[in-house]
Amino acid sequence: MADKLPKYLPHLDIGLLIGSNCPLALQPQQVIPSQGEGPFAVLYRHGWTVSGPLHIKFNPVDNTLTCNRVLFQELTSAKECLTDVILNMFEMDFNPKDTGILPGERGFSREDDQFIDMANKGIAEVNGHFELPLPLRDPDIDFSNNREQAEKRAMWQRKKMLHDDEYHEHYTAFMDSLLSNGYAYKVPSDELAPVPGKVWYLPHHGVYHPKKPSKIRVVFDCKAKFEGFSLNDRLLQGPDLTNSLIGVLTKFRNEPVAFMADIEAMFYQVRVPPQQHDLLRFLWWQNGDLNSELREYRMAVHIFGAVSSPSISNFALKAAAKKAEEKYGSLAADTICNNFYVDDCLKSECTEEAAIDLVDSLQKSCAEGGFKLTKFTANSRNLLRSIPQEHHSKELQTRDLDYDELPVERALGMQWHINSDVFGFSVHLKSQPFTRRGLLSTMSSLYDPLGIVAPVLLPAKKMLQDLCINKQLGWDDDIPVEYKASWEQWLEELQHLSTLRIDRCLKPADFGHVVSVQLHVFSDASTVGYGCVAYLRMSNEEGGIHTAFLIGKSRLAPVKTITVPRLELTAATVSIHIGQLLMKELETTPESVTYHTDSTTVLHYISNETKRFPIFVANRVKQIRDFSEPTQWKYVDSKSNPADVASRGVSASHLLTCMNWFHGPKFLSSSESEWPVQPHLIHDEKMHEETVTATDASQDDCSDNTVNKLLEHYSSWYRLKRAVAIYHRLFDSLNSRSDEHQYKNKKHAKSNRSLSVEDLSRAEKSILQFVQKIHFNKEFELLQGCEGTRGRVPRTSSVYTLDPFLESGILKVGGRIG
After folding, report:
1. What pTM was estimated for this model as a whole?
2. pLDDT tens per residue, range 303-335
3. Is the dihedral of CA 440, 442, 445, 449 positive or negative?
4. What is the CB-side half-sphere exposure of residue 343 using CA atoms within 13 A?
5. Which residues pair with 373 in a beta bridge?
6. Nearest to 590 by CA among 518, 482, 657, 658
7. How buried is 448 (Cβ within 10 angstroms: 0-12 exposed, 13-18 middle, 19+ buried)?
8. What is the distance between the alpha carbons of residues 515 and 510, in angstroms, rounded to a whole number?
9. DSSP for 384-449?
């Protein structure tokens, strides 16, 4: 049997539990029968399962039992599917469709409109709380009675609790709190027999918080299907009424006095009409006594797990803001509407007095809608003293505000060092196997919503993209050895991020009154990727200038080769997305928005009025022109462009020294009269068409198709060099026209002279580089930036024994030949 089964991997954790309601997953495809009293094996779609032995013998000396072993055999289709998902994720970077960064807003769907209509008609106030109905797609539909399913799931939980006393204790405490707070109640004996078709039982299970091992949350499984349907299938999800995470964090950085709080059990504060309580029945043991009979209970509130609950709770919260506006003022109402991310409130104020007044108004406003605002954290000790200690966060409740340092808290996942009022990064990575799955897990564990360290992630993304292209490599296969050194170096460098600090507040202390605010967005692209970065430039009454980092983006170039000008144009489009997002989310509206690029080609694209561009270019130019004017676009040289590190990627230690990235280019900190002079762009349409088209073509088609055609056409080495030299001269002539003055002075100087030895040498070098990069592309990548260095080529390379190295852009070999 052993030679037919795949290797058993004991280190794999349980990732999927397959129930009996998935018959296709349990359908045998192959069976290896037992031999004697030994085990037998069954091949399912997900892999092999070994069961046995058939008869268990109890040995007084070694009383052991064996259980089923699942030998997961990665299916080819599943492997390719996961690979495609990762590659598509990187491709989506190239064609950004993130809801949070697109210009404009998406409208509601028909179902969203239906949800809003039902909520507006059904909302009511009952005993100090809002009541909203479950948004059923069809209020008249009949539900199948799934009590048997819920009972089976309850018995699974009972089995788990019998083997884990701590789990049982935490689970029981949670259920007791539901009952004691009135979120759930026992079904009266005279109502146990439900109306046929109007009852649904919710299976439930416990989930521990990954960062709080002792905190359990009982989740009601609204996805559980019975006879082909689940409760979530019957509910409208509703529109996304949650504020943008980036927007809430950006507003949080606006002023020096900052505080955080959250709403206690937000979903449970919105009631469900009594006539719908039977759709939220569940089974539980009274007082958690597992030896007693199961009892029937009902939820009286909207629950975790229901697809509609996030929209319901956000709708109710905004209703509370509207209700409290007249009584507590527009500032409190605006804060509730714009500074909450689900149940977390993040807000900053200019003074401690203003913050104290706002906190008082917020607590009262939320209480009007039945929401309890608690767990306060702030960087102002006076503000904390004005709030009762029982409403402080758990970490603060144990601190002496007169003597102890304020703790480090998490602000929507960001590490906030409250005492120094800075954001930082906690780099505590779990050990992962050296596989593609391990690489992806490690990359995903670094949380960075503002893109502060985006350039550091780009090299790791590139490595994973290269590995995904290799279709023969499985997700749990060891990665080729040539990648190991690079990955280990990246991991080692990553530890430097633990020392990174960036000011939470956009304004420095004692900066004074801000009289001018400008938004500047920079973009850049390379063959590896493209990126953008945005800064807020502020001026005070004394003429002081400060530039603050807002947000960064770093994206991979797609697998399919795209010209650098087109990547630059894509980066410019992402700049527009970022600019529009920040204009919407910044509390202080900038008086101007300026976009910077180091590509004159992009500037030509944007300023052109008559040229009909290819679809790729036209779509992006239209989006840029829809949300900006050509006068808003400026040229910046590559050395001064902070987005350069985002497009190429850097190590963590290098990023820490890139003051250009964190504070913007030096010229932003000087007077506008001292900014770099903008180059003169040619407006002659015919000349512009030649320049843009030739530049694009020279870096796209000519790099591949043209050279290939030349190689196939010429049988003479000398004639081939002459042809390439002529092409070079043509491109030089077209590129020289980008500067009108240069064009007038040099157009005759280059047109009449014959080909020189230097021209032929340049052509020869171009041909050699082209051919070498086709056949030795991996070697070029490994040796790039390490000219003259030997020994970096892996043993698997066909030229490893020749000791190759890179010199002046040409791959050469060692030894006497050189």
Report:
1. 0.74
2. 988 999 999 999 999 999 999 888 898 999 999
3. negative
4. 19
5. 263
6. 518
7. middle
8. 14
9. HHTS-GGGB-HHHHTS-TTTSPP-EEEETTEEEETTTTEEE----PPP--SBHHHHHHHHHTS--T
